[in-house]
Write a structure and sequence with these properties.
- By secondary structure, the protein is an all-alpha fold.
- The protein has a domain of about 60 residues.
């Protein structure tokens, strides 16, 4: 079940990221009538926030999580006894 949820999350994240990139090319920057009725409209900044911000937050969160996981795996054997438990055996 966990693998299915991870797969669904990856597909959803790729969709949001792809939509964020595509929105920058599909949007008619000089024509406010083209994005007036979109979510976040009628302002351009609102439309970009609604359509692009989730696609930017997800990769940033993924990078932070991977960095945190990498730093934890580097500290696994750093205990005083070298066993990784952090306890000194007498």
């Amino acid at each position: 079940m966990k693998k299915v949820l991870i797969a669904v999350g990856i597909v959803f994240g790729l969709f949001l990221t792809g939509r964020a990139v595509a929105e920058l090319f599909v949007l008619h920057w000089g024509d406010p009538a083209s994005y007036r009725n979109d979510w976040g409209g009628p302002s351009l900044i609102g439309v970009l926030a609604v359509h692009c911000l989730p696609g930017l937050i997800l990769p940033a969160a993924l990078i932070c999580r991977l960095r945190r996981r990498a730093s934890r795996s580097g500290r696994a054997g750093a205990g005083p006894s070298g066993s990784g438990s952090g306890r000194v055996l007498a």
